[in-house]
Amino acid sequence: MPDAELVELAGRLPAAALVTDPDLIAGYRFDRSNAPRAGWPRAVVRATCTQDVQTTLRWATRHRIAVVPRGAGTSLAGGSLAVDDGLVLSLERMRAITVDPAAAIAVAQPGALNAEVKAAASSGGLWYPPDPSSFAICSIGGNVATNAGGACCVKYGVTTDYVLGLEVVLADGRALRLGGQTVKDVAGYDLKRLFVGSEGTLGVVTEVTLRLMPPPAASVTMVATFPDIGSAGRAVTAIAAHGRPSALELMDQVAVTSVEKRLHMGLDTGCGAFLVGRSDVGGDRGRSEVAQMVSCCRSHGASEVYWTDDEDEGEQFMAARRMAIPAVERLGTVLIEDVGVPLPAVTDLVEGIATISTTHETVIATIGHAGDGNFHPLVVFDRGDPAATKRAERAFGAVMDLARSLGGTITGEHGVGTLKRPWLADQLGDDVMALHYQLKEMLDPLGILNPGKAI
């Protein structure tokens, strides 16, 4: 017997927008988080415009049906896992991008990929800085939902620093315009920032107005190897104290070995840690910045230091860093951490992670945006081995506890999703959690937007 409620929704949407084929629905259940379970939704809506989103949310409110907004499905924290008997609201077909070079802005729909926004900006002689390692496959809507960062954020900031305006559809179907096209705007509360990083729990973003920048000068790149990860951590703190590189990325031995097996670049797999630093100010000043990084690395025990002003060669080293997660995933199932600590605590964090790996008999490959203290320890395990799975889960929690003990955070850019919810209250405290719940109830009184995520 046809589902009368879904028949009603199908009649209000464009042809083929509603997907009910179980084989197709299966592809929308999970994301990239390796979370062990996802629900079976009743259907998937593949929206093509804001009106489709409004229609879907009005229907969902009327029937009290949960809705999980979804972009490219690259969430690493379980933020876009489907829920039982709900809807998945896919924004993947909303891909339009327009660039206004005179105003230095881009207006993008949420399904546009980060890489597509970068390319559109470049065609107008401009640059969109935020660069998650998954920039080639992650969507702008997802970047907004998690306030994504990336390697260059140590110098240029994260997604929220480039969001000038949003169009957001609330749970009851109202479409709001927040912010606009100006860099300065203090008319009323800055509500757009409330939605950046809210992981689809307060509203569904259907359009983003982004600030663009002039492109930077050609980069000068430094690479350094260290005998142990603690020495690399101390070099990171020293570099950050002396300047602001455009990128400062770290990989430990497990990550380096995994990448070398994948790319065959001649990386030193015997090193304890590998550091990539970049300067993009150009000319003599850029070379001076890199010389300062080289000095910091040598004074903190680097085994080898090398620098190049060949931009293609430098980009190869950055590509190696971006390949770390896919390379480590070849070792087994991976739970991807996303903790952050103050820069003086970087060494304590990376050495502590190594201790946790030993204590819990679990492989952990540590990579990260070292220059801003945001690290991604990759907890590797065999999902078919219950004992190994349990050890990995304990190691995952121990890393978050360590970051918190160092004055840090359980997530810097991936979001809370489902994987980190058990630790959120300890970080925020009772009063702040209560305020979160009050805001959620005000904007989504029935609790239909991405339930079970973030808070």
Q: Can you give a write-up of this model?
A:
It is a single chain. With 455 residues, the protein is of the alpha+beta class. It folds into 3 domains: 4-90, 2-Layer Sandwich (Uridine Diphospho-n-acetylenolpyruvylglucosamine Reductase, domain 2), CATH 3.30.43.10; 104-211, Uridine Diphospho-n-acetylenolpyruvylglucosamine Reductase, domain 3; 220-405, 3-Layer(aba) Sandwich (Vanillyl-alcohol Oxidase, Chain A, domain 3), CATH 3.40.462.40. Helices cover 37% and strands 19% of the residues. It has 16 helices and 17 strands. Strands 10, 11, 12, 13, 14, 15, 16 and 17 form an 8-stranded antiparallel sheet that branches. The chain has a 5-stranded antiparallel sheet with strand order 5-6-9-7-8. Strand 16 and strand 17 form a beta hairpin. The mean pLDDT is 96.
Notable characteristics:
five-stranded antiparallel sheet; alpha+beta; Uridine Diphospho-n-acetylenolpyruvylglucosamine Reductase, domain 2; 455 residues; Uridine Diphospho-n-acetylenolpyruvylglucosamine Reductase, domain 3; Vanillyl-alcohol Oxidase, Chain A, domain 3; single chain; eight-stranded antiparallel sheet; globular
